[in-house]
């Protein structure tokens, strides 16, 4: 039987070239420890976001977050896709990530989504450093979320994120998701996305 500890070891990236250990260890769990996030934990995560790079330092990212057992948590759960609802309730903490669509001059900020992605990269590495797993989810009904949370015009909810300390019980997942959790991780070779001199 696969234990969570064995799963974490199995999920360490089998990289072709040496990289920073926290990046090797990162994966997207669907099970989590029951341990709750403290106020200090949350502050540390958002401080990592706060110091992310952004175009002209506009910092267009915005987040809505909630602890399990709260009304906000249930609202976020209600905006997730049916597939994500099967497992996301294992996380003690949920977030919605959004970005501001226009710059301070009122023009479209073409780089806002890029900057949100940079902030989530910072968040991910900081979380890994703290022993927290993140599972970023595209499967969220953003239009519903905009209404449920009264998101002001000019802001766009993009993704949801499940957060929790690594751990938990594989049996908390349906059988088909247990298989996915134990599946070998794969990535495209560098040659398929990094081209020197010209597009190939």
From TrEMBL:
A Pfam cross-reference name: Nitroreductase
PANTHER family: NAD(P)H NITROREDUCTASE YDGI-RELATED, NADH DEHYDROGENASE_NAD(P)H NITROREDUCTASE XCC3605-RELATED
Chain ranges of the Nitroreductase domain: 23-69, 82-165
Species of the source: Maribacter cobaltidurans
Family label: Belongs to the nitroreductase family.
Protein name per Swiss-Prot or TrEMBL: Nitroreductase family protein
Keywords, alphabetical: Oxidoreductase
Signal sequence interval, chain numbering: none
Region Disordered, residue ranges: 180-200
Composition skew (Basic and acidic residues), residue ranges: 180-191
């Amino acid at each position: 039987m696969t234990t969570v500890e064995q799963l974490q070891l199995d999920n360490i990236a089998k990289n072709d070239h040496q990289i920073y250990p926290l990046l090797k260890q990162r994966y997207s769990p669907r099970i989590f420890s029951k341990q709750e996030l403290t106020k200090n934990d949350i502050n540390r995560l958002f401080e990592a976001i706060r110091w992310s790079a952004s175009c002209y330092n506009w910092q267009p990212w915005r987040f809505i977050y909630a602890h399990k057992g709260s009304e906000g948590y249930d609202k976020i759960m209600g905006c997730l896709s049916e597939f994500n609802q099967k497992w996301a309730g294992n996380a003690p903490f949920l977030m919605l990530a959004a970005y501001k669509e226009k710059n301070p001059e009122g023009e479209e900020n073409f780089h806002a989504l890029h900057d949100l992605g940079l902030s989530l990269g910072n968040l991910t590495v900081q979380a890994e450093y703290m022993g927290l797993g993140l599972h970023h989810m595209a499967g969220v009904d953003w239009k519903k979320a905009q209404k449920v949370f009264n998101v002001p015009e000019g802001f766009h909810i993009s993704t949801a994120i499940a957060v929790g300390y690594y751990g938990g019980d594989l049996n908390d997942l349906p059988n088909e998701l247990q298989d996915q959790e134990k599946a070998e991780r794969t990535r495209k070779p560098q040659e398929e996305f990094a081209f020197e001199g010209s597009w190939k």
